[in-house]
Structure formats: C-alpha cells, structure tokens
Amino acid sequence: MFRRVAAVVTVALAALLLPSPASAAGSALVFRKAYVNSPGPDTRTNASLNAEYIVIRNIGARSRNLRGWTVRDKAGHVYAFTSDFILKPDTYVKLHTGKGTNSASHRYWGSGNYIWNNKGDTAYLRRPSGTNADVCSWGKVASYIRC
What we know:
Blueprint: H1 2-17, H2 21-24, E1 29-35, H3 46-50, E2 53-58, E3 64-65, E4 70-73, E5 78-80, E6 86-87, E7 92-96, E8 106-108, E9 121-126, E10 132-138, E11 144-146
Parallel strand pairs: 7-8
Antiparallel strand pairs: 1-2, 1-11, 2-7, 3-6, 4-5, 4-9, 9-10
C-alpha cells in the first residue's frame, strides 16, 4: 500500500515540476501591445490608420528572422513578412495598419481600412508552419490593450 501511495505522489510531483507543452514550446516572438482605437474620429486618413498598430517583441536571447511569419485578425486580414526581417533580442517592431516606408522598427500593412476591431478582436502571430506563436484577444477597449 505504501509503495502505491509513494508512486502516485511521485507521478503527481513529476507532473507539477515538468514544463507544460505550452511553456516548453513557447515563442520568443510575442505580442506586447495593440493600439486598436487610434486617437480622434475614424477618418481613414493614412495618419489615423497608422495610429492603429500592434507591437511584436523578441523576448529571446538571439535574433529571429520573421520571413514567412504572419499576423492575422479574426476577420481574416493577413499581413505576411515576405522577405528577411531580423528582429534582434529585446527589440520590437510596430506593425501599422496604413501605408509607409518599412524600417527596422516599423512595418506597414498597407491597408486603406482599419484592421483591428476596437469592440473586440483577436490577433494571431503565426510561424511559417502555420502554428500560433502568440495570440492576443480583447473586448471593447478605449485605445490600447497590453497583450
């Protein structure tokens, strides 16, 4: 009887101490903030569109190439990193909704319409394989949400 109890306790402790599949497969690339309701009225000017953005941060210890990665919303809008884009450790990139010139810290979706629904939406950061690296969901927000 004692051996059976000891075996059950050992299995339970091992389950608690081993990393879960989610943490073991955790991504170094994560969403940090989504500014889903640009300031002022929704005029659809490029300046207003670009005030809507989502931040992707590299929390890992090495540089990551985002080529082939995508950002999606619940409605099916997709932004793809189609060429090499290196995100160094502990740095971020803002993905703006409107048009602009891409740089090391700013990328532009090129949309003429708002992407993120400020009454509730979900952002998906997907690896080239199509699996989710990170997901950020929100309900109605005044301006931004921390992911």
